[in-house]
Please model this.
Amino acid sequence: MKEILGELNHVAGQRAPRLVVLLSSMLLERALDKILAAWMPKYPSVLGNHRMSLGYRILILKALNLVSEELVTRATLVRDIRNKFAHCVAVKRFSDLGDKLVRRLRDQAGPVKAGGPEGLHVSEDLYRFREVVAGLVARLRTAAEALSKINRFLRSGDARTYLTKRLVDRRVLSSLAGEASGAQAGSACTGEGEGTSPDDRVEEEG
Model:
């Protein structure tokens, strides 16, 4: 997190919202590539060479259901803000984004830390954007590390041994359950099951 904030601090120090947004979106793209490669080992060679947009990366992440919907929502917000600054010459600062997009940013960022924007000499909304990106990228990197470990385990001999043992255990349990069901059915047929009371047996004998 500190490393990411350091990168963003350097960028934000330029006081150029467009530059901050574009470089921040590049950090997000790298984080998305890392998490997708962690789960799909051939992603860099098969898909990484194609010029995929930030939005397409987010769609793949959502389709695989690798992270929470909250992170997907934040990544989508960064993409939308990035597209505005990248494709609209008239958008020079965050106040030019429009009320709807600014409101989405403020909802995701939460309250601004006292002295934060002033310390960086940036607007409150640029500060909010910086915080959203830093938190998002940090969580994606953490998720990528966890997924990489899971993937390595699943492809290892230990995973095959573990899964084989679980399958054997399930077969044994299923076999035992089947035998128990057969025994109960046999008891019911001979009148020794739970469905036959002592009084019933007396009447039958009489």
